[in-house]
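Notebook, p. 212. Picked up where the previous page left off. The plan for this session was modest: take the two constructs that came back from the sequencing core last week, fold each one, and keep the raw output in the notebook itself so nobody has to go hunting through shared drives later. Recording the first one now, exactly as returned: residue sequence, then the structure token string.
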Amino acid sequence: MQHTNTLIIGAGFAGLAALNLLVDAGEHAVLIEKSAHLGGRAQGHVVGDFFANIGPRAIYRGGAAMRLLTEFQMQLTGGIPRNSAYGVLGNEIHPLPADIMSLIKTRLFSVADKIELAQKISLIRNTPPESVMDVSLGEWIDGHFHRLHTRQLVRLLARLNTYSGHPDNSVGAFLRQFQMGSKHGVLYADGGWSALAERLASRATAKGGKIATGVHVSHIQRQADGFVVTTDDGNWSASQVILAISPKMAYDLTGDETLCRWSTAVEPVDLACLDVALTQLPNPNRLLAFGMDKPLYYSVHSEFANFGAKSGVLVHVAHYQPTDPQADKQTLEAYLDVVQPNWRNYYITSKFMPKMRVSQARPYSSETITAQVPTTDGLYVAGDWVGRDAILLDACFSSAESAVGAILAKQDQTVMQSVGAD
């Protein structure tokens, strides 16, 4: 039987962040991953000459992920998308307002719509997110916005910032993301997220952390002095375990009653995505466009970040509420017809993902999920479904930080108790 102080299961961003934090603290830690590759859902794929993210992904420059990556001294390169987006209403496309002057000029809204937006935009920009964390998005929009098109715009912004426009989402989570993005912007990273995962893994192993891929865990048993973790490559003993995996997998491995409840409380977020490689854009000025009356997304990340191709462009289009794969693909192609007419004349290749998992949980479930599992001492969880202080990629990093912080605090307490006993 092999032993480590802390065993991390899952090599997504949460697991890799936890490993880096532990080795930085001088802890002995091992990460095991069932697949042959690192990064979990942060994978890339080849579309034409591009090796890019599977679907659209961005890093919030003011969030927990960027903060910890900076602490890890990992310099990220890439591009910050400029604020010149379009709104699509039916088959019409118009610039989205970015300030008062563009609000006055846009043809997306009537005069009455513009008046309401001018009066209410401060709610989105200035409402403290913590004050409305337990208020639903639908309730908040209906209570403050009365014009159809202004409601559509706010729902658009919610989808854009959280990948989900579900009316039961926390409006506080949306406002926090929106305000953070407005202040600091987002980054489309060169090489995509798979390259970032590889860099995190290399950094951790260079500092003494160990990573084993292709190792399948079948059971985790709590014992008096820690845990026994059964794998197809032999057993491990560990003083504590961090489960950086999905909530269902965490429950299946442990049978813990709290994890059972948490796994049923969360609701995952999926997208239908179409990634399209073109020789060029028919309309090169349209790099970002979002559906007003339909939950649709369009962006050209290759105009801001380097994904390896020497020419051409890579377009991401996505449907926020995937239903039927064939219908969704037709919807995305029709949406591309509106944003980039005649795009088929420049077509190289494409890849369609009918149900891409974006997050294990939309923000938020009715129950607060903590990094420390209260019913099993020494058991921790990390991932985009854990905690209430961040969502998406930032939740992966912040929950890893919470789990590692709890482990180190517990060890400090044990040392102090030992000193006191002496």
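Okay, moving on. Second construct, recorded in the same format:
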Amino acid sequence: LSKNILKEYTSDGKTVAKLDINVAVPLVETSGKYMVIAEKDGQKAYLISGNNILWNNTIEGNISRVNVNKNGYVSMIITNTIYKSVIVYFEPSGKEAFRTYLSDSYAVCTAISTNNKYLAIGEVNYTGAIIKSYVRIISVELAQSKSKANESMIYTYESENGEIVTNINYQDKDSAICMFSTYIQNVKTDSNERVYNISEDDLFLDIGLKSGIAVIEKQSSGLFSFKYQVLIKNTKSERENLYILNSDLPKSVNVSGNNISLNLGNEVQIINSSGW
């Protein structure tokens, strides 16, 4: 994205599309064949698939974060209104399906389930003596019903004291993997369970894998000949795979689908969720 033109390329560098996107500082999220781009702290938002802009909307308030699922459903967190946060849910056509208003807490992140039935909202409440975070699961069907909208919040997970929720990713129809300051929790429509406890040796974590989490760990023992390793933990089976890093700490890491790319400075190593 440069000078309000989004250029799309094939894997061999051929330009296939040039789209007019009126965004200076972009918020970008992708899933499957969909990409949502919005102006950070602005009002413009676009949904793109392939070489086409499916829709663009102008939002009242300021857009602070966006999310899209593999079917093209979009959620946005809006600030600078009379509420602390407003969450807007869009259908793939661009039609606004419903809104959720937060008066006592700030929305930090959202995620939409792979079957479009649930919206997970990560919130932080700073008003009390102790910081509290919440993950609320919204039934999309109930939220769109005028008579049952008040019943749409079907489950709420309350964090441990002092924890701040930072990200949510749906890895199944009803499994919202939620990252907090010191742990990762699997929040479903009727229950929750601990996935991972974050330690001081964990230097990087990402919950964006299709069915797992990726952790870069520092080896605290001098018994090994390597400094770092990548731990890939499956959130369903709890199986763990390792990839040994015989190098310095990666400069950056990108996670997509079942793949993890490690930017080592003069090369990029790409591994899958099996550690290969």
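Notes on construct two before I forget. The radius of gyration is 20 Å.
Flagging for discussion at group meeting.
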